[in-house]
Amino acid sequence: MKRRQNNSVSGEMHESGLLPPVQWKARATIVALAWMLLVAVGVASTARAAAPIEPASVRTIAVENARPGSPGWWGRPVSDDGSIDGFVDSMSYSAGEEIELKVSTSPAARYRVELYRMGWYGGDGARLESCLPGCDSDVLGGPQPSGIDAQTGEVRTRQWTSELAPLTVPADWTSGYYLAVFVLTSGPATGRVSYAPFVIRETPGAERSPILVEVPATTWQAYNTWGGASAYTENPRSVVVNFARPIRLTRTRHRSGSTCRC
Question: Which distant-in-sequence residues (6+ apart) come within 8 Å of 155 by Cβ?
Fold first, then answer.
């Protein structure tokens, strides 16, 4: 089953309230960090804490996070030059829905996509769930077109095609934060990566948790400068934000003098 959703937010961002002001960025960061802490200590579920049970809808977060992790998923060189960019076609999915991945490589090069669930996992921080087309194979990609709408500042990538077949979300994937890692496997930039976060929602009808995780997806896209425009840039400034595009990790300098990709 394929779920469709409107992946654009339109309107004047500061005036309409559809996207938060600058103060929301700090709040969203705090929410995300709090969620990661709760996952690490394994308190985000009230389901039974017995041995793993399939499907994932009855598996506790604590049991999930006790599984072996996948070290080495983080710290690889990030593509800042367009050598590889990618995105998923929605911000969230449930079991049985399809994930479509769109990738651009410039110049043409081979790549694979690694899909991780974020969590404690013995301190590794993530667990590899799947690879496309496979963990020991890759596919040839090429440059994909993009542009900025002159009237709205929207960055357009909807015309991107995919070399990969859609992935149907398995029933045994536990809800939580997931990360698609696009990895170049050939060419002068071999080993470089780009990232796209998404969420796997709890299966409908599953036992409810007392903790709700609010994912600041609109905030991510409001500050996303991939393609040359965001809701907070000037000339151009986006008053229509398209979720169907890669996310650019930019260097931000804090008052302390430290920098991060955020």
Answer: 146, 147, 148, 226, 227, 228, 229, 238, 242, 245
Q: What is the pLDDT of residue 256?
A: 52
Q: Which residues pair with 214 in a beta bridge?
A: none
Alpha-carbon Rg of the chain, whole angstroms? Answer: 19
On the question of a cis peptide bond just before residue 216, with omega within 30 degrees of 0, the verdict is no
Residue 230 CB coordination number (10 Å): 22
Q: What is the DSSP letter of 128?
A: E
- Amino acid at position 85, single letter: D
d(CA 231, CA 102): 23
Angle at 223 between CA 83 and CA 241, to 5 degrees: 90
According to DSSP, residue 78 is labeled B
For the chain, the average pLDDT equals 78
Could you give the 3-state DSSP secondary structure of residue 233? Answer: coil
Report the candidate in 257, 245, 244 with the shortest Cα–Cα distance to residue 5: 244
> What sign does the CA torsion over 114, 119, 120, 123 have?
positive
Q: Which two tokens stand for residue 225?
A: 């400068």
Please determine, for residue 199, whether its predicted confidence score (pLDDT) is greater than 80.
yes
- Say if residues 142 and 66 touch (Cβ distance below 8 Å): no
